[in-house]
Amino acid sequence: MEKKVFIADLIAKYRAKRGGLIPLLQEVQERIGYLPRWALEEVAQGLDLSLAKVVGVATFYSFFRLKPKGRNIIRICTGTACHVRGAEKVMAAVKEELEIGPGETTADGEFSVETVACIGACGLAPLMTINDEVYGRLTREEVVRILRELEAKEEVKV
Question: Which pLDDT value is given to residue 1?
């Protein structure tokens, strides 16, 4: 019930504002971490919009998430330098090791994979980030080593 209360407060804040749906969804996502169906239903009802309209907006913009992200976010650069220097090999190694691809999260909720157009460290291509740490000049073997070390650290935390 508490969840619905904070959404009701946000709806009241944005109801009268033209174009309020997007900032409302942004605040809901910021509080919950993603946009679960129940929250989209509450927003639709509260703004007197169809669920299809609200879901349409939430799925149109790439910054909205309909599923929770993992605790560790892996971003693989697909910019020009990384593409030329082997971003596809980095992606293949991540897919093979974690059994997920871009936009997916492992079943245990530990890892999510995203692609980004540029990380801004082209001299280190190909590269990826895990959370806020940059890993550059990657080979397939290096990617596997990094992921296995991180997986081992996560197992110890449990």
Answer: 43
3-class SS of residue 77 = strand
DSSP sequence for 92-146 = HHHHHHHS--TT-B-TTSSEEEEEES--S-GGG-S-EEETTEEE-S--HHHHHHH
Q: How confident is the model at residue 156 (pLDDT cuts 50, 70, 90)?
A: low
CA distances from 153 to 13, 77, 148 (A): 42, 24, 9
Residues 81 and 153 in one domain: yes
CA–CA dist 125, 89 (Å, integer): 12
> What confidence tens digit (pLDDT) does each residue in 27-81 have?
999 999 899 999 999 999 999 999 999 999 999 998 899 999 999 999 999 999 9
Residue that the structure tokens 């992200």 belong to:
69
Tell me the C-alpha distance between 91 and 113, whole Å: 9
1's CB contacts (< 8 A; 6+ apart) are: none
Query: What's the domain count of the chain?
Result: 2
Residue 93 sits in which domain range?
72-157
Q: Looking at the structure, tell me whether residues 93 and 129 fall in a common domain.
A: yes
pTM above 0.85, yes or no: no
